[in-house]
Design brief:
Elements lengths: L4 E10 L3 E9 L5 E9 L2 E7 L5 E8 L4 E5 L2 E3 L7 H13 L2 E12 L8 E11 L11 E6 L1 H9 L6 H14 L2
Parallel strand pairs: 4-9
Antiparallel strand pairs: 1-2, 2-3, 4-5, 4-7, 5-6, 5-10, 8-9
Amino acid sequence: MEKIERLERTLVYKGAIIDYYQDKVKIPNGNVATWDFIAHKGAAAVIAVKDDGKLLMVRQYRNALDRETLEIPAGALDSVDEPTDVAAARELEEETGYRAGKLELLITLRTTVAFCNEKIDVYVASDLKPGKQHLDEDEYINVETYDIEELIQMVYDCKIQDSKTVSALMAYKNKYCV
């Protein structure tokens, strides 16, 4: 494959979570194209497994969809250099109130490769210890528990559509529930 050359990257908007750029690129046929690029500092997510085998899920309103979603606990890294296991443990406790005695990397995801560099490391958390949620002032999250089979059925019924949650649930079922 012939190389594509980035000629220019221009910051269009700097946001709290993402930065939006427009890139000028020279493609192999010699044409110059303008491509959108979203820079993201990365994230971590958690499949939290209680002692009875049920998984902790979070239900929250998502503005982009204008509705509530059911997802695995997750959140952005505090900085691009933050270790993802540290972020995963923090997000688990903030969103669910539980602390993990053990964290194991399950899968690494690239959510939208056509225009964004977001990377999410998904961990399996076990040996959970209950505590207290530490939600941000703009967060409202309900914690719910489900069997993996219930969650997989929700994926197939299109009730769970969040890509990180779908990918993580499928990977978890394949690795731990065979």
